[in-house]
Amino acid sequence: MRQEVDGMKSVHEGVLTLHKPHPLVADQRGNIDEMESKLTTEAAVSKCEVIQVAIVCAGHNSSRSMVTLIKSMLFYRKNPLHLHLITDAKAHLILSTLFDTWSIPQMEVSFYLADNVVSEVSWIPNKHYSGVYGLLKLTLPKALPSSLRKVIVLDTDVTFATDIAQLWALFQNMKSDQALGLVENQSDWYLGKLWKNHRPWPALGRGYNTGVILMDLSKLRSMNWPHLWRMIAERDLQTMLSTSLADQDIFNAVLQQNPRMLHEIPCHWNVQLSDNTRSESCYTEVADLKVIHWNSPKKLRVKNKHAEFFRNLHLTFLEYDGNLLRRELFGCSNYSTNKQASSYINHEQINEDDACYEFRCVKYIKYRTHLFYLDYDYEQESSDGSSEWDVTLVAQLSMDRLQMIESLAKHWEGPISLALYMSDTEAQQFLSFVISCETLANRKNIGYHVVYKEGSLYPINFLRNVALGQVTTPYVFLLDIDFLPMLGLYPYLKRVMSNLHMSEGNKALVIPAFESLRYRLNFPKTKADLLKMLDVGDLFTFRYHVWPKGHAASDYPKWRSATTPYKVNWEQDFEPYVVVRRDVPEFDLRFAGFGWNKVSHTMELEAQNYQFIVLPNAFVVHMPHAPSLDIAKYRANPLYKRCLDTLKSEFMSDLSIKYGKTFPVGN
Amino acid sequence: MRQEVDGMKSVHEGVLTLHKPHPLVADQRGNIDEMESKLTTEAAVSKCEVIQVAIVCAGHNSSRSMVTLIKSMLFYRKNPLHLHLITDAKAHLILSTLFDTWSIPQMEVSFYLADNVVSEVSWIPNKHYSGVYGLLKLTLPKALPSSLRKVIVLDTDVTFATDIAQLWALFQNMKSDQALGLVENQSDWYLGKLWKNHRPWPALGRGYNTGVILMDLSKLRSMNWPHLWRMIAERDLQTMLSTSLADQDIFNAVLQQNPRMLHEIPCHWNVQLSDNTRSESCYTEVADLKVIHWNSPKKLRVKNKHAEFFRNLHLTFLEYDGNLLRRELFGCSNYSTNKQASSYINHEQINEDDACYEFRCVKYIKYRTHLFYLDYDYEQESSDGSSEWDVTLVAQLSMDRLQMIESLAKHWEGPISLALYMSDTEAQQFLSFVISCETLANRKNIGYHVVYKEGSLYPINFLRNVALGQVTTPYVFLLDIDFLPMLGLYPYLKRVMSNLHMSEGNKALVIPAFESLRYRLNFPKTKADLLKMLDVGDLFTFRYHVWPKGHAASDYPKWRSATTPYKVNWEQDFEPYVVVRRDVPEFDLRFAGFGWNKVSHTMELEAQNYQFIVLPNAFVVHMPHAPSLDIAKYRANPLYKRCLDTLKSEFMSDLSIKYGKTFPVGN
C-alpha cells in the first residue's frame, strides 16, 4: 500500500538531512554482513517447510504491481508458499482468476475480503480512501486464521532479489517479546526536522518501515494487539488528527511505547528507493540486496547508473514469463494442495497418440489470465433508463493488431471488452502504448483482459469467452478487431434495440460486413457513401472474393435498399457479426487458430432458435492487414485441415445430441 | 563441447545399469548437504574478487548455446568476471562482436584462437572434427596466461542456477595435490558393462564429468601437465585407438593413474541430464540445484514434470533480455576495465535538453548484436569465375515481417544477408520458425544477424550496416524486406554486371520498384506480365499515390519500352533499390525509424559521382502489409517531423563539407 500514499510521501520526504541515529537503534544494528553470515548458517529453513506471506491488495494497479512481487518471490523460492491476500472486490476478482489459471505447484492462496475488517480501521482519520487499505495491516492478527502463528507481511511494491526462505529464517532470531521484525526507515521523516513545524508521529529514532514485516501473530495475539494499537492510536490522534503514512505511523507509535516488541532486520531486507533516502549507504555496503522497495515508482532516468540497476531488476520480473514459474519443487510433492488444480492442462483427457493431439489440447489449457489489467470504471447510465439497452463491444487481439484499438475506440464510444493474447513482455509494451495514446489514456470504459501466451495456436474462442465473461451491460456486440464500426453505431444500436423489443425471445441483430482491399480508405460516413464505394469497387462485401458464404445469408442485395430491419434465415457457414444478449452461449473452445470458430457459434444460435435480424442502417468495414500466421499455418499444414475437419464433425455431433437437431454437413 | 559429441554419447549411454560405486569414490562423497553447508560459510568469496572462467567455443551453434550460459552466470553473479574464450574464427567473430556491443560492466573477455593450440591435441585419433575442440580443455594450463593461477572451466551447454562465486569458493577446499575439481559422472559409461565388449577408457569408479572443472592451473603447471596427460594418452591410445568422449576420456585416464589430483565436488554442481543418468538421485536429494548440464539438448516431452522443470529453467535464460544484465556491481567500480567501453551509449555527446534528444541518441547506441545467429556456410563459385560478379541481397526486418523471409528465399537463390531486430524471446521464435520452415531449414547461404531491441526507434540504418558489413561477395543488392524480386533476378544480375563492366567506376544498377495494393497477387512472371498488370491497375509504380518522387527518377515511362540498360540522373528524394559494390558508403545512423533513411544514402552515392543505370529486365514488387508502427508514430508526433527536419539539414551540411558539393534543399 506504500505505493498509493506515495504522492504524499515523496513530497514530505524530499529533503535529506543527516541526524545522529537513535542510541537504541545503533546498539541493535551491529555489523550487517557479520550478522547476515551468521544467520544463513544458523537459521536454515528445512526443506519443504511452508512459508506464510500476507499482502493487502486493492484495485487494478496494485494487483498488477503485486504480480511482479509474486514473480520475483517464486523465481527464487525453493519452499512451498502460502499466500494470504486481503483484497477489495476488484483485486479479488483479478487475483482469484489469475492464481486459478496460473496453477503454480506448491503455492496455496487464501483470500480475505477487506470489507470484513475495514471497520476496524476506518474510524482512523485518513487523507484518502486507499489509506484504509494501508491501515489494514494492523488487523492481520485478527483477520488471519488463529492457526497461523507467524507471517511475512509485504507491500505490493517490493521485489525479491533472493530466496524468501532467508527472510523466513530470521524469525528464529526473534527473542521473547519481539513480535515485529522491521527494517529501519531510510528517510528522515520521523526525525521531525524536515521543515518548520514538521510534526511526524512518534517513533524510535528514524522509525521503521512497514513495507516488509516479520509478524509473530501468536505473540501479538497474546499481547492483545487490537487493544494495544488502538489505545495508542486513539491517544496520538488527539494531537496528530490523522495518519500521514497510514499503518506505518501507528506501528511506529506502538514501538516507541513498546521497544521490546521490535526486532530489527538488516537494511538490505527492505532497500527503500524513495527520493533522498539513505538507502544508498545500505546497498553500496552490502554484497547483495535482498528486497527492493519501490517507494516511489516514478520513471528512473537512464543517466543514473544506480537507477539503471534497479530498473533492470524490476524489468526482469515485470517481463518474466510467468508460465515458467509453474515448475514443481522436487521432493515436496506431499504439499500439493490439489493435484488437479496444480496442473494447468489435464493431459489425461487426451490420447497422446491421436494425430490431432496438439489441436485437442487447446480445449483443456488453462491460459493464465489477468482480468482488468488496466483501470476500469464504467457506470451504466441508468437515470434515463437507457442502460436497459446498453451494449458492450467484444473483441480479441494479439500485439500485431494493437494499433486497431485506437481506431476502434474512436468509432465506438460505448463500453468495450477486449481480450489480449500476449506474453508478459508484450503486456508491458501494451501498457506503454495505452498510456502514451491520448485517445485511450483517458477512456475508463474499456476492459482489457490479458491472456498469456501458451502453446502455438491462437486460442480465439477462449479469448472471446474471457472478454464476453466480463461484460456488465445486458447486450454485447460480437466483433473482430480488424473491423471498424460505422461512426455512431453505438447510439444507433441502443435506439434500435428498444424499438425491436430485443429483450423478448432470442434475437441476433446482424450488422452487415464490408471490406476494403486498399490501405488508404476514406471511411464511409453514411450508408449512401458506402453504397457509392461498393459501386466503384473501393469496397466489397466481406470476403466476397474468397469466402462469400460467410456473410451471404445477410442478403446484401436486399440490404442496399432496406430501410427497416429484416429477418433472414440461417444458412450453412453463416458467420455474421451480431448483437445479442450477454447470456448468449459461449464460443466452442475446441476451435483455435483459423477456421470455424465463429461458424460454430452461429450454428449454436440457430440451434437455440435465434432470429437473425439484419439492421438496415448499420455496417462494419474490415480494414486491410497482412494475413495472420494462423491462416498461413492452415494453408501450409494438411494435418491442420484434417484435424479441423475432425473437430467440426465432433462439434456437429455434440450439437445434435444437445439440441436434438441435425445440421447439414458443412465443408 | 559436450553438445557436439552428444549424438554418440546418448547412444552409448542409453542403458541404465546400477553398479556398486568404486570404494575410493564412496569414501570421498560423504553427505553432500552437510558438506555444502560447511562450504558456504567457511569459504566465502570476498566482495569484488574477480572470478576467472574458461570456455572452449567453436561454430555458430555453440556460440548461441554459450550465450545462454553467460546470461545465467551474469544473472546470479555478484562478482566481477573474467572470461577466457578459446574459439575458432567463426565463434571469435560472433562473440567478439557480441561482447563488444553487449558492454557488460565488470566483465572482461579475453580471446585465444584455437588454431594456436590445436596442434597439441590434433594428433589424437578422433571421430569427428568438433572433437578437436572438445580436446582443447587439455591445453588450458599452457594456452592461458601464466599469471592466471586458477580457473573454472565450463562446457557451453551448462546453465547456472546460483551464484558462480559459490563454485569459485570450492577452490579453497582443494588440498595439496588436488589440481582438478570434478563432479562424478552420472551415467554408467565408465563402468564398462553397458554392452558386450564395451570397453571405455580407464577411470576411477563411475569416472568424472568434465562439463564443469575447477582447474588449478598453477598446480597443473608444476606437475608438468602437458607431459603427464600426453604420456598417459599415448599409452592408452595403443589399445583404445581413439577417444570416445574427447577430453573426458583423457582426464579420467590421468586421474585413474593419479587419484591424488582429484577433488570431488558435490553432484549438484553438474547435474547431467543425458538419457538414463543417475542425476535424478542427485536433484531430488538436495534442496537446490547449482549447475545444470544439458548433455542431451533434445526436446523434452511436456508430460514429464521433471523435464518441464528443466525446460523452464533453460527457457528462463534463453528468453531473458540480455540488456538487463548491463547492471553495474555496486562498490566494485575499480574493476571496470574500460570506462568508455562499459557504457553501451555515450551520453556525453548529446545535450540532454535538446528537444530531439531521443532521436539523436539513436546514433550512439551500441545495439547488442549477435552475428550469424544460425549456421551459415557459403562458398562462392569460383571455378568458372562467376564469383567475380556474385551479389548478396541485403535487407533488415523485425518480427512482423518474419514470413517474408520464406517468400524472399524462394525468389532469390543467391546469398542473403539479413539483420533482424528482435528481443531475446523473439530470437527463439525466429529460430523455431526457420527450423520448421522447409524452404529455409536447408538454406545455408542466408546470414542471419540478430540486433537486440533497445529504445523505441527502429534503427533501420544500423541494421542495414550490420547486414552490409557481413557480406563476402563483391556486390550487394540493397533491398527492403517487403519487396519480392522477380524470379531469376539473381542469375540475371550476375550476367548483366559482367556486360556492364560493373567493376569500373562507381555504378549503381537501379531495379525498378512496383507495388501491389491487393493481398492476393499473381506475381508477374515476366516484364510483359507486369506491364499488363500495370495497365489494368493490378499493380502500380511504387508509392505512386503517396510519394512518387522516391522512384520517379527511374523513369518508368522509358522503362516500359527499354530493352537495354539506360542511365538516369539523380533527383532530389530519389531512393531506388540498387546493386552496388560491397564497399559502398554505410547508411547514415542518425536516421532511425521512418524517414530519409534511404534518401540520404542515395544522396551520398550521388556525392560520390555514382552512375545510376536502370536495368530494363529487372523489377521488384512491394507486397502489401499494414502500416508500420514507425510511420504511425511519424504521423502522430509533430516532434518527430521537426526533429527529422533538423537531422536532414545537419546531414546535408555534413555532406556538403565532406564532398564540397551543395544539394538542393529537400522537403
TrEMBL record, chains A, B:
It comes from the Eukaryota. It is found in: Golgi apparatus membrane. Keywords: Glycoprotein, Golgi apparatus, Membrane, Signal-anchor, Transmembrane, Transmembrane helix. The keyword Iron-sulfur does not apply. The keyword ATP-binding does not apply. InterPro entries: Glyco_trans_8, Nucleotide-diphossugar_trans, Xyl/GlcA_transferase. It is a single-pass type II membrane protein. Its main location: Golgi. PANTHER family: GLYCOSYLTRANSFERASE-LIKE PROTEIN LARGE (PTHR12270:SF25), GLYCOSYLTRANSFERASE-RELATED (PTHR12270). This is Glycosyltransferase-like protein LARGE2. The lineage of its organism: Eukaryota, Metazoa, Ecdysozoa, Arthropoda, Hexapoda.
